[in-house]
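**Tokenised fold:**
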Amino acid sequence: MMRTNLKSVTWFNAFVLGICLNFLVLSNAVAQVDNQLSATAGGTNYTVEIINVPDVEFLAVTTSSDFDDYAGYTLSGDGEKEVAFTLIDGVFMRHDFPGSQKTHFYALGNDGRAAGHYQDADGMYHGVILENGELRQYDFPDAAQTFIYGISDATGALTGNWIDASGVLRGFSGDEIIEFPGARETHAHFVNASGGMVGSYVDAEGLFHPYVRTPDGRFVSLDLARAENLEFYYVHGINDVGTLVGRSKRVGDIPRTYVGTFRDGLQELAFPNSVFTEGYNINQDGSVVGHYQSADGRVHGFIARPVSQAVSNYFGNVYDVTLAKGLNMISVPLAPPKPMSAKALAGLTGATTVITLDSANQLFVGWTPGAPNAGFPIQGGKGYIVNVPESRNFAFVGAPWSDRRSAAAPAVSVEISQDQNVWAFVVSGHLNGRTEYNGYRVIVRNLRTGSTLSASVDGAYFAAATADLARRSVVEVGDMIELHVVGPDGNIESHAARFNVTPEHLANAVLSVRIDGVGKPQRDMLLQNYPNPFNPETWIPYQLSSDSPVSVSIYDTTGVLVRTLSLGIQPAGFYNSRGRAAHWDGRNAFGEQVASGVYFYGLHTQGFSAARKMLILK
């Protein structure tokens, strides 16, 4: 389902031809233009990019490096507490100080160091620093509590606040104490490369004032209009050209973000259609980093990049979306400033999987959060299947697709319940046993329906997807799913792995598995030859649990040895395909074709022997 905002000032009527082979959506669309982000902030216009991590519903981004790496805080894997996170080179990691009630990061250096603070079991706060993957505590000298908000790339100095034993809050930068003259409390948040500091202080009457502290120690502050109504006003960042970012909250209002300069003024910066927007960090290029809450209660990171007014207006369109719980078929209505991937779409929608159709090969392709890459590109005018565990309300932000065939189209949603068919499904997972899987594939078979899927292995990951666009069931609770791993030469490289489908799998539209022992059989085994009966040649498959000399002996029904196939020392593995199994051409030791009839073949290894029967028919 798609909802549009009646404040729309520009309308796009579009439809996408809904034919099964092209996997598109049949509908009419109405798009909204709401250029909230194109409003000037200190004379600057912006485009916005959303920062999400699939499977993470709460991503409070508070800081960034100059290389598009991010940090902040999120929820622990069990959702029980707030923990810090880093998102560096696309790798998301949680960081939780031992024994803490919560841990937050507010600073990230270009060298990957992160800093912030944690709350201990007694409710007291201490600084925390992440270096070389390890967390360590930092307390400002003589501080009862310490809060870190900045870290200098030039000097490594920390900036933040500390509370002494008497309860007075002051700022610090490195070893220096920062205190605005006559202030009840002084907050220090960030120092730029030239030594300029930003923060705020509370005067004797309890009113907030933002300030800039010059490198020589002088303070420049502002008196805010209606300051008596402010719960807080914090200036979080300043870049080398003097552009500021800060947050404030008036009594009874939401937190709001402001960007600009003291000279030109500070203007509000709000993510379109968000419940609230909080900007925390400003980079040297003027881009603002923070997070916002969408209508469905999820928290997303964002980066707003300064651009010309024309570019900001072009990418300022907003399209409100509502997805029902379960499976939805959607078409992305707007082109984002940065190309979107399956990973980005999953992060924005909160999807457990994204499925598309490879029309050239007529195969469905799936992506899940376990993938080692961002997956396939998201294009305008093309349909995608997403599965969401709860209903979603959020907004797409971007430009009209330049190709009219890719114009905005609304989402079509179909909810999963016990009374409805699960019409799209992904079996995904990881392989374990080899160091590389170039050319490997995973064969997936539903033993109830007999349907078979195949997926290539990327790294050690695979995702086999299926869908029925007529929305008929493709899987049910209790189905047995069997998987085999096949090497590049067609050789089976694993034992058959079987998994039962549960209600949880249906709710996520994903069966996530792990296949261990790829290429490493659990025991020696002699398998049935093929073809059987045969004429004149056959292949004898076997498997080895360890390296061993191997031979195959062939006997007639009287027990006379007909032929010995000496295969030499073979490494542990599966020997199933014609390229790897033992081959017998139907000849005896003298090179003569043997007569029709029953024969026996035996496998002999260092610690194993077994025999089977085969039949030659001429």
User: Anything to note?
Assistant: Residues 1-42, 404-415 have pLDDT under 50 and may be disordered. The helical segments are 309-314, 342-349, 503-508. The longest strand covers residues 561-570. DSSP finds three helices and 48 strands in the chain.
